[in-house]
Amino acid sequence: MKYIEGFNRGQSILFPVCIEEMIPDEAEVRLIDLFVDSLPLKELGFLEHQPSEEGRPMYHPRDLFKLYVYGYLNRVRTSRLLERECKRNIELIWLLKGLQPCFRTIAGFRGENPQLFRNTFKHFVAQLNKQKLFGKKTVAIDGSKFRAVNSKKNNFNQRKVDRQLDYIDTKIGSYLNELDEGDLNENQENEIGKKIARQKDNRKKYKRIEKQLKESGLDQISTTDPEARSMILHGSVIEVAYNTQTVADDKHNLIVDYQVTNNNDRKALFPMSQKAKAALNVDELTVLADKGYHNGEQITACEKEQITTFVSPPEVPRSSDIPTPEYYGEKFRFNKNKNSYTCPEGHQMTTTNNWYHKKYEKSFTRVKHYTTSACKNCEMQQWCTKNPKGRIIERSEHASAVERNNKRVKNNTATYSKRQQIIEHIFGTIKRQWACLLQAGFRSHTAQRALQKRWGVRINLPDLQFSKGYEHFRY
Asked: How confident is residue 436, by pLDDT bands cut at 50, 70 and 90?
């Protein structure tokens, strides 16, 4: 029986195979080569540093950028792995024409030129815009958490520092008590002395961190990845991460703009909407977002810039001061012309027009108080409020804009339902590509929905078994 045999490695070849012939015409690497070569490198800032006539020649930024794009698309992220691939990967040998930059050169290019990558993305979006691939009417905004290269033990806030200092003082105190009790030989005393010295060094470390916290004015710091912050990923899972805000257009679900932040979604609506307007070069825009973006200040700012919002209203927090559902805040009707509320019992509630500042986390919102003297003689007061002075309704300065937004969402459910179709699959695709869907902290509901939609069954991600992380799993 015959087998297909390979060539003899030791035999000389009269007509060597051209490396161009080894790369298929439909190979992704050819698209990377064509795309980067078509970029206006000088306009994007790639050619700011001209090579010197003396010394060793520098690598062309175009080639290093090709290497990074190839690495991103093929899940080869680190500079050392990219260096290795340059020596053995036939596609990269073709792409870089045999160049083999060292890992320091590769890492230095990325670290010293972060804006180049941003400029290239903007240029790419501008080209999509020219090709009329954006609908330019409706966009959706969402954020996704990506874990930073910083463990939770290397993330500190004042409470954590105080806890560690108390622990250190307690340990030092216990060691000193052991020394005072006596009956220790010389080796034991030396051992305790070393432990005390170690704890004193730890105390100095946490004191430095405490000083850094006070000088920075931040509520937390990360020592490995300074810009990362501890945040809730989902439920009760907390990780040191970044929150990547992304805007996508509804025509082909293409990304319009993005922003890597270390805050939650609450104050991202207006900034990201502005970015989308600028990228699409339009005067008016409709924005869809989930309840995490529901913020009166942000919705008002959007209205002023001709941005129509469809932000899902969150569940109203219920106060224990309101005994029965019949007297919840939404049961009180506001009359804009009279600037007054009417309570469920028909009493008119008026305001003195004085503004009060209400604090929410680190920000303040102006509110007016609406009251009525009828509360004193109302038979239903005990069911309406536990406040002995009567019921008070607070109305924010942003209440009108919020009410209009909520009404739009309620009356246009079909429009708002497009949000998930436009934006949520993007993060699932990214995490699938980078094989981080099953890593701790990334068992997201978005991913579960994507799997359920594809296979028609409910998938419990933690129970799935994949070999080598993700390679054998495809949509």
From this structure: low
Token digits for 7? 């060539």
Q: Give the mean pLDDT of 422-426.
A: 88
Mean pLDDT is lowest, of 410-414, 417-421, 469-473, for 469-473
The pair phi, psi for residue 198, each rounded to 5°, is: -65, -40
For residues 72 and 379, give the distance between their C-alpha atoms in angstroms, rounded to a whole number.
Answer: 69
Tell me the one-letter amino acid at 82. L
**CA 165 to chain CA centroid, nearest Å:** 32
Region for residue 102 given its phi and psi (left: phi exceeds 0; alpha: psi -120 to 50; beta: otherwise): beta
Residue 434 dihedral angles phi and psi, to the nearest 5°: -95, 10
Cα gap 428→475, rounded to integer Å: 11
Q: Is 462 helix (H, G, I), strand (E, B) or coil?
A: helix
How crowded is residue 379: how many other Cβ atoms within 10 Å of its Cβ?
A: 7
* Global confidence as pTM: 0.79
Contacts of 71 (CB under 8 A, 6+ apart): 77, 81, 82, 85
* Per-residue buried b or exposed e for 364-374, using 16+ beta carbons within 10 Å of the residue's own CB: ebebbbbbbeb
Tens digit of pLDDT for each residue in 150-208? 888 899 999 999 999 999 999 998 888 888 776 777 788 888 888 899 999 999 999 99
Region class of 326: left (phi > 0), else alpha (psi between -120 and 50), else beta: alpha
Band of residue 323 on the pLDDT scale cut at 50, 70, 90 = confident
288 DSSP β-pair partners: 140, 310
Answer yes or no: are the C-beta atoms of 93 and 63 closer than 8 Å: no
Give one DSSP letter per residue of 303-324, joined into a string.
HHTTEEEEEPPPPPPPPTT--S
Distances (CA, A) of 242 to 148, 199, 225, 260, 261: 6, 33, 10, 7, 6
